[in-house]
Amino acid sequence: MSGVQNREVGAEDADIRVDRWFRRHYPELKHGRLEKLLRTGQIRVDGGRVKASTRLEAGQVLRIPPLGSVSGADQPPEYRDINDRDRTWINSLILHSDDDVIALNKPSGIAVQGGSGVGRHIDGLLAGLVARGEEKPKLVHRLDRDTSGVLLIARRASVAAKLGDAFRGRDARKSYWALVAGVPSPRQGTIDDALVKSAGKDGYEKVVADAAMGKSAVTDYEVIDTAGRKAAWLLLKPRTGRTHQLRVHCAGMNTPISGDRKYGGERAILEGTPHPGVLHLHARAIALPHPSGGELNVTAPLPEQLRETWQFFGFDADRREGYE
């Protein structure tokens, strides 16, 4: 049928539901119409019928029928033109670029992907990293909206699959810097608390430690420097990649990340510091096998607001030896 698309599921979309995949890539497609297309078999995965709740795997192919108008907001993000201002902005974030991989220094405050109530996001701007008309680069992993730092982008689906395998196989070594309220005891160790999403009393979803129902979540940590007993600069190395893992693990040590009111409450607000309400969590470095051989190792400098807090406490924001 003319107008039918076949789209491969990228590594960044592995293990999400079909309806959520469409919400990310076709935000203007209403849920009712999506359900009808699924019921009538017009949307298929690897040639078979699926439900809205079916979870996708990287490499699977979705058959997508014509969805009507392909102008304006009806287009998926990769087919929309990127204005010059956004193109300049997304290119200003580049830390590393080669024939396979682009690494960005994601700012705090912008979501990596779209969703309910999310307008501008990194995924919607990735086409600005290539010439108009070229294939849109692919996300490989994600960072929270309020977390800054290294974000890897694959130039092609085949590269995304290789990088995705590195993340799932734990060949990717990630290092984060965090400023926390208080000082952990001991000053170096491993947190092994399984995590699960749960609806809080306020109706908002949170991640909580739950040994019985949670998925394995492991984080190595080390204190780099301290400001008396008020605050500590931590190196965090997650062995797993659960949602909000570092935030929950730090709060579980009674040393919440500065600015993280969601998990640390008022204790996380360090009054008198330059930016007490900003989440002080930064994806400092990533090292993993390069898809074309050798190793890719990318480091992101602290953003200006976090740098000001580091300087406030007398910490060396440019320190590198032994911490990446």
Describe this structure in words.
By secondary structure, the chain is an alpha+beta fold. The chain folds into three domains: 70 residues, Structural Genomics Hypothetical 15.5 Kd Protein In mrcA-pckA Intergenic Region, Chain A, CATH 3.10.290.10; 92 residues, 2-Layer Sandwich (Pseudouridine synthase), CATH 3.30.2350.10; 140 residues, Pseudouridine synthase, CATH 3.30.2350. Helices cover 18% and strands 27% of the residues. It contains seven helices and 16 strands. The strands form three sheets. Strands 5, 6, 7, 8, 9, 10, 13, 14, 15 and 16 form a ten-stranded mixed beta sheet that branches. A four-stranded antiparallel beta sheet has the order 1-4-2-3, with no helix packed on it. A hairpin with a 3-residue loop joins strand 5 and strand 6. About 3% of the residues have low confidence.
DSSP E strands, number? 16
Going by helix content, strand content and strand pairing, the class is: alpha+beta
- Compute the separation of the termini in Å: 52 Å
Using the coordinates shown, work out and report the CATH topology of the largest domain: Pseudouridine synthase
Largest sheet: 10 strands, mixed
- In N-to-C order, the SSE pattern is EHHEEEHEEEEHEEEEEEHHEEH
The first-level CATH class name of the largest domain: Alpha Beta
Low-confidence runs of at least 5 consecutive residues: 69-79
Radius of gyration: 21 Å
Shape: globular
**Architecture (CATH level 2) name of the largest domain:** 2-Layer Sandwich
Work out the count of structural domains.
3
- Total helical elements: 7
Average predicted confidence as pLDDT: 89
Give the name of the CATH superfamily of the largest domain. Pseudouridine synthase
Helix residue percentage = 10-25%
β content, as a range? 25-35%
